[in-house]
Design a protein that fits this description.
Layout: E1 2-8, E2 13-19, E3 23-30, H1 38-50, E4 57-63, E5 75-76, H2 79-90, E6 96-100, E7 105-110, E8 116-121, H3 130-139, H4 147-151, H5 165-177, H6 182-204, E9 210-213, H7 220-230, E10 234-235, H8 243-261
Parallel strand pairs: 1-4, 4-5, 6-9, 9-10
Antiparallel strand pairs: 1-2, 2-3, 6-7, 7-8
Helix pairs in contact: 2-8, 3-5, 6-7
Length: 262
């Protein structure tokens, strides 16, 4: 039995087809988010991988920023619950989960069964989000994919004191004008994001095991900075960008099983 989860974020769309609630049969990441062609392209991609169509999907759950505009879903579920369930599936011991998305930062507490117990989110501000890192990468004339590698080469990270994206951008430009090494600037940016995220985590309370999901979790510099600030290991699941879509597919499987038992 196939169930599908589709996570329509602000910057990318992810789809997962789950087989019998156990195995990822197909997955896709499309670099287009809500309001774009990302969702239909992600669906087409996983269908093509398996040689199936809509009639072969028992249940579809949509999550993420654009979930309410995806008409082909049987159900819409909050990305908080989906990330919690997806990470619990991949890393069962997780109790504190950090997700830095394109538009916001979320810190969650998970129960032993992977259910969402509590959470906090940042204000409606781009500071410390994936968008913030996009802006910084553009200013530094590099890519977000390169930030982690460059961070590892830092010798003396600079301080980025501003929490506002606009002011932080000005700080970065100032550091560049003063001849600071780009690697040290990037490490400083990552430290700034980590301190802002850690502040949210401490408001909620940090319970090990700590994990991070989402696309930003692929940035080794962010993981390094978070571990330094929190003073604990931060685990990252394989296929971390798929955790929301995986959780959505798991919700779909549970819905089908619940109906069969009912």
């Amino acid at each position: 039995m196939y169930t599908m989860g589709i996570d329509i974020g602000s910057a990318a769309t992810k789809a997962v087809v789950l087989s019998d609630g156990q195995d990822i049969a197909a997955s896709s990441v499309i670099g287009f988010g809500a309001g774009t062609s990302g969702a239909p392209r992600a669906v087409e991609d996983v269908f093509s991988q398996l040689g199936i169509g809509w009639d072969d999907i028992a249940f579809t759950v949509a999550t993420g920023y654009g979930r309410l505009r995806f008409d082909d879903a049987d159900k819409q579920v909050s990305e908080l619950s989906c990330h919690a369930l997806g990470v619990h599936f991949a890393l069962p011991g997780t109790r504190t989960l950090i997700d830095i998305g394109g538009q916001d930062v979320k810190v969650m507490h998970l129960s032993e069964s992977g259910m969402l117990d509590n959470f906090v989110m940042n204000e409606k501000c781009a500071a410390g989000t994936g968008r913030f890192l996009d802006v910084m990468a553009r200013v530094l004339e590099t890519t977000t994919d390169s930030l982690g590698t460059l961070d590892a080469q830092a010798t003396a990270p600079v301080e980025i004191s501003s929490t506002c994206t606009v002011f932080a951008e000005s700080e970065v430009i100032s550091h560049l004008s003063n001849g600071e090494d780009i690697c040290n600037i990037i490490a400083g940016i990552h430290n700034s994001v980590a301190h802002r995220t850690a502040g949210l985590a401490r408001r909620l309370g940090v319970q090990p095991q700590v994990a991070m999901s989402g696309g930003v979790a692929q940035n080794a510099g962010i993981i390094r900075a978070l571990q330094d600030v929190l003073g604990t290991e931060v685990a990252v699941p394989d296929n971390t960008q798929l955790m929301g879509a995986l959780g959505a597919a798991l919700h779909g499987y549970r819905s089908v099983v619940g109906k069969q038992r009912g």
